[in-house]
Design brief:
mainly alpha; globular; Rna Polymerase Sigma Factor, Chain: A; Arc Repressor Mutant, subunit A; DNA binding
Length: 193
């Protein structure tokens, strides 16, 4: 039994630790993910809160899952889109995809160097991402930030398997074309720092 399956089953069985574990391990990703659909932070926070209320309220009748992250992402996307449709707002206001980075600060100088490297790295990545369509940015987010498998991406985006693979390939090819060879080298050098 996978860890996610055990935690999910414990949550459904009302074990105290499981809800806290699910919440704390996924809240940051859920918030960043919500920002892909709306810049309205209150709307995102409300959708996440409603998602967890629904989980608690319906825990006994929930289906099984061995991938909690995927379950939460798909549920949150549905809630946000439903709210946006109800409010008649734009469906996709995709923003930059960022990922929190682990940082160990040993000194002020190292912290400053790391911050500068991260900013340059983010600028390079954003330069490439700005050339992609919202759908291509979305699929890269699922594949590389959320680490979803292609069948999960297909389910959440409502596309076919071969389309998902082609979209990822097209997005990566576009990034390579947009970023010069020196930009790519700099990106990977900064990434390894």
């Amino acid at each position: 039994m996978t860890d996610d399956r055990k935690i999910w089953n414990d949550f459904k069985s009302s074990k105290d630790y499981a809800l806290s574990h699910i919440y704390h391990h996924h809240i940051d990703l859920l918030f960043r993910y919500g920002r892909k659909f709306s810049r309205d932070e209150d709307l995102i926070k409300d959708a996440i809160q409603e998602l967890f209320f629904d989980l608690i309220r319906n825990r006994e009748s929930l289906g099984d899952t061995d991938n909690i992250r995927f379950y939460l992402l798909k549920s949150l996307k549905n809630k946000i889109i439903k709210t946006l449709q109800k409010d008649q707002k734009s469906l996709h206001q995709v923003t930059e995809i960022t990922e929190p980075k682990f940082s160990s600060v040993y000194s002020h100088e190292e912290d400053l160097i790391e911050r500068e490297n991260r900013e340059r790295n983010e600028q390079l990545l954003l330069k490439g991402l700005n050339e992609l369509s919202p759908r291509l940015r979305e699929i890269l987010f699922y594949r590389f930030t959320c680490e979803l498998d292609y069948p999960e991406i297909c389910d959440i985006m409502s596309i076919r398997y071969d389309s998902a693979r082609k979209m990822v390939f097209r997005a990566l090819r576009t990034l390579r074309e947009v970023l010069s060879a020196s930009d790519i080298m700099l990106f990977f050098l900064l990434k390894s720092c």
